[in-house]
Amino acid sequence: MKILKVILIIGVFLCRFSVGATTLFHPNDSTRVDSTLVKYFYYSFDNQHLGDIKVLDTTVLSASFYDPTNPTFEYYQELSNSGHAHKNFDLSFPTKIGFNSDLVSYDKFIITKNKITYPIIYQPFTEISYMMGSKKEQHLNVLFCREFAPRLFIALNFNIDFAPSVYQRSYAQNLYFAGNFRWNTKNERYGLNGYYFTNKINVFENGGITDDSFFVDLIEEDKTVIPVNLMGADNLIKVSGFGINNYFILRDSDIKTKKKIGLGRINYSFDYQRNRYVYNDSDPTSSFYSGFDQVLNADETFDSLTFYTIKNEINWNSLSYGRYDNDIPFYLTFGFEHDYSHHNGYTEILSGEQFGSVDYQNIRTKAGITVNLFKSTRITGKGELILGGYHEGDFILNGQWKQFLGTYKKNIGALVFDVNLSRKTADWFEETYYSNNFRWDNDFSPATYLRFIGSYETPWFSIGLRQTAIDHYIYFGTNAKPVQHSGTLYITSAFAKFDITLNHIEIGGIASVQIADNENVVQLPFFYGKIKLGWNINLVRGVSMMQPAFVINYFTEYYADAYMPALRTFYLQKDVKIGNYPFLDFFVTFKIKRANIFIGYTNIYSLTKVNRYFTTPHYPMRDSRFILGVKWRLYK
């Protein structure tokens, strides 16, 4: 693709040349730092000053996880190739209340305000990640950041996922661009940051293959001619937005030491977001839609949804000038937010008239607290309550007690106990929907979610237990429509995460066991897991190394949710079981200074012709194939 070549040339031009690591002084003190270290925080200066800072991953073990739906420590149910809808193997738990226009099934491919990174750097850098696969599949991500003026940092991020498939009408192209800036006064009393993002996703939807026996029983080995359910359907998804966030410290005291407790700071933020979802199908009477609602327009489906959301938030917190490393002795915050959203739909069956044109508003209050005691105990809590308007009375509460076995800086791990409680009214999509093939109007009761988590955590691994109870759970039933369970649903799970290095061996992965007490309401694999095992071989000490590695993904057999393209939603099905198949990949990664170059061969077990490699019913995963990629960070 020409666009990929242009972006690569621009990325290299921005860098001009790479330099080795240097030692600099931190701009705020005399601490020596590695000038090539890149850290980042999300959205608010408060996150930076509270120590909620992450390091941009450049490890060899993670270099080959190029696919957004195949990260190192998560596992997703997918369709036939990258770029399409997906669903986490864990049961979703609400993190938001109020009006919600997010598209959960495409979450990994959509960048929004909360995913934009604000790099903390000591010299300009550009990071380029590129992967090339079969059938012209390509993935490219370019991240650039530099200080353009004193204390003015600007970051630009471009991404494209171009993912054609061997199967008919299975194609996706996902693009996004995000830009952000941050600036503060010399004495740091005032700070301002802002962002802009835009996403465009084009997907050809085939509805899966018509008969799994074509694939499973090798009736047709040429996968390009296997019949599929939909030959004229596609989804268009556009999400864009912009916003600003700024803070002002109330008392200009003790600027030099920045340790004195002041009167705190005031934050104000403004956010705007526009979402548009369009589903087209030139054959609305396809047998794929039989068993659902009667089609209203037999000639063509054109279902369009548009959302506009504006948020204004003001809050106070107890931060003044201090900077912390997650060890602030006491932190308190509270504030208010006003949300306004407009929703309308359009379909040709109404001769150009709009439907569902509705305005939603609410006012909510937010509060949070953090207490660190004895250098070994951390207690945090935060919550939201909708005071009036849409979904009035809904709330969400999160609490955590973290007990270090030792002190915060020197310990043998920590015991962590989390509790999450929320009351959530049905989303607009679950309440009322009107389209060419699907229609409903529901009056559901609010659902109540309660979750307890207990875990033991170290920097190398964590293990824990999770108990979830949901009263009046809302889900999509076998008719692909929202249904509300009248009782209480219980899900019990045990989980582990590990990222361990032993001499030349590196191991990373996840594992989970989960049981739901009512499989007529929610269906989950009893076990799923992912592990990557690598062996580090030094080629030229301090300059280059090689890591051959195996990756194994596996989940037990179960009735996985089916996918409905017209709704962009997964729903229950009880006809087909999938699973009990090892997805085996092999990679060789070469690290040459700051570049990680990898060659891989994926889904090796498919060479046995045991054709059971589905993660979603009727959507076979990709066959074995070679891939080639690079992840390269350059500095000016």
CA gyration radius, whole angstroms: 25 Å
Percent strand: over 45%
> What's the helical proportion of residues?
under 10%
| Number of contiguous helices | 4
Category by helix and strand content: mainly beta
Could you walk me through the main structural features you see in this protein, from its secondary elements to its overall organization?
This protein is mainly β and 636 residues long. Helix content is 4%, strand content 53%. The protein is built from four helices and 38 strands. The strands form eight sheets. The chain has a 22-stranded antiparallel beta barrel. Strand 1 and strand 2 form a beta hairpin. The radius of gyration is 25 Å and the shape is globular. The model is unreliable at 3-32 and 349-353 (pLDDT under 50).
Entry summary:
By secondary structure, this protein is mainly beta. Helices cover 4% and strands 53% of the residues.
Secondary-structure blueprint:
Layout: H1 2-15, E1 23-25, E2 32-34, E3 39-42, H2 45-50, E4 54-55, E5 76-78, E6 86-88, E7 117-120, E8 125-132, E9 138-149, E10 152-164, E11 171-184, E12 190-205, H3 213-216, E13 233-249, E14 265-281, E15 301-317, E16 330-347, E17 354-373, E18 377-389, E19 395-406, E20 411-424, H4 428-431, E21 432-434, E22 439-441, E23 447-457, E24 461-471, E25 474-476, E26 482-484, E27 488-502, E28 505-516, E29 527-535, E30 537-540, E31 544-555, E32 562-564, E33 569-571, E34 583-592, E35 595-602, E36 614-616, E37 619-620, E38 625-635
Antiparallel strand pairs: 1-2, 3-4, 3-7, 5-6, 8-9, 8-38, 9-10, 10-11, 11-12, 12-13, 13-14, 14-15, 15-16, 16-17, 17-18, 18-19, 19-20, 20-23, 21-22, 23-24, 24-27, 25-26, 27-28, 28-29, 29-31, 30-31, 31-34, 32-33, 34-35, 35-38, 36-37
